[in-house]
Amino acid sequence: MREIEVSLLKKNQGGKPLNTAQPQEKPPARIHPTAEVSPAATIGAGCRIWHYVQIREGAVLGENCIVGKDVYIDFDVRVGNNVKIQNGAYLYHGLTVEDGVFIGPRA
After folding, report:
1. Range of the domain at 56
2. What does the pLDDT read at residue 7?
3. Hey, CA dihedral for 61, 62, 63, 69, is it positive or negative?
4. CB contact set of 47 (below 8 Å; sequence gap of 6+)
5. Could you tell me the CATH number of the domain that includes residue 45?
6. How confident is the model at residue 25, as a pLDDT?
7. Is residue 60 part of a domain?
8. Do the domain assignments include residue 13?
9. 10 lies in some domain
10. pTM for the complete prediction?
11. How much is the pLDDT for 8?
12. How many domains, the chain?
């Protein structure tokens, strides 16, 4: 059975199967219309930015972050991938948040 599966795959000149899977595109960030995101901020793919968020210039958000209602992210703040920032949190200048961190509400 295994030989049949391999023989159906495309092979390179050495006879080894090629990986023909297409790379998946990352989903774009979703930004609520009431959010104020500076054009000089960097927002990673797959981020979700909710109501009344303010993100200042030079801020960097990694991929797949969730930024809840009324969050303020100051200039030059660095946020890693897969970070969840709950409602009403304030992140001030110079802060670096590592990957996978949860920041509770009103922090």
Report:
1. 27-101
2. 42
3. negative
4. 29, 30, 31, 61, 63, 64, 65, 66, 67
5. 2.160.10.10
6. 84
7. yes
8. no
9. no
10. 0.77
11. 44
12. 1
